[in-house]
Amino acid sequence: MRTYSDTDRGQIHLRIFPPRVPEGRPALVCLHPFPYSGSFFETIAPLLGAGRVVCAPDCPGYGGSDPPSEMLSMEEIATTMHQALAACRDWLSAPFDLLGFHSGCLLAVEMARLKPNRIRKMALVDVPYFTPKEQAGRYPESTAEACYSEDLSSLEEVWEFSVRKRIGGMPFRRAFSNFAELLRAGERANWGYHATLTYECAQRFREVRHDTLVVATQYMLKEHTRKAAADIPGAAFVERKDVTRAVMEEGAPAIAGEALAFLG
After folding, report:
1. In this structure, are residues 162 and 184 in contact, taking their beta carbons and an 8 Å threshold?
2. Total structural domains within the chain
3. Of 114, 159, 173, 198, which sits most exposed with the smallest number of CB within 10 A?
4. pTM for the full model?
5. How far apart are CA 226 and CA 238, in angstroms?
């Protein structure tokens, strides 16, 4: 099921996966990495949905959500997500749980900071927990505006990254879907990295007071994820040595198992 919510920054598109077995467990909201959309969780959502609603919204400017007029901070994105979810009271009541992947982890932390009473637990997978120096070094290239033209060759770099040189364990159709979602963001595709690379990770993570699970895979960001877990008071940390690639595809059963065991 799909729906839209009105917010101060336009309409937000949300994917809703009803529970396979209605048991009344808290809903789980999945927060996608930039520059993709909530479709990133279509492979794992069926594994998470026994007894709970799973929701995968599109952040502003991604997927089917309206684009912002300027780059947004993580706080602004989190505020918009809360507005969108608050409008869905028929199927999502607070407190609910959060599952973040890559930049979605930072969004989860910020949503919990802004509205702590609306969040129950968080599961964070592969956290881009960068120092200010690392953020500054990545910022210029990561936030550069994408340039497309009527020349088909302008899509070549995105095609190479998403499809031809896709990570092992990712089927072609899945890679093609990610390619299409990336293109939907247009020339604003990299705007989300502004929020990621200006976020005060150390300060915000040390302020977390929610039950939190941090999962590191072998694919990338393992050491950054370990540092993130160390800065969250009382966080549970798990390193999955068996997940070496395609985290939300090939590794989906392992990640879903860790999340469900933690969320209860």
Report:
1. no
2. 1
3. 173
4. 0.97
5. 9
Quote the CA–CA distance of 54 and 256 in Å, as a whole number: 12
Which residue carries 């095609």 as its tokens?
159
Q: What is the dihedral of CA 146, 152, 155, 157, to 10 degrees?
A: -110
pLDDT digits (tens, 9 = 90+) for 156-187: 999 999 999 999 999 999 999 999 999 999 99
Preceding amide of 22 cis, omega within 30:
no
Q: Which domain holds residue 110?
A: 2-263
Residue 234: CATH number of its domain: 3.40.50.1820
- Helix locations, the chain, DSSP H: 45-48, 74-86, 103-114, 132-142, 156-159, 172-184, 192-196, 201-206, 222-231, 252-263
What is the tens place of the pLDDT at every residue in 174-233?
999 999 999 999 999 999 999 999 999 999 999 999 999 999 999 999 999 999 999 999
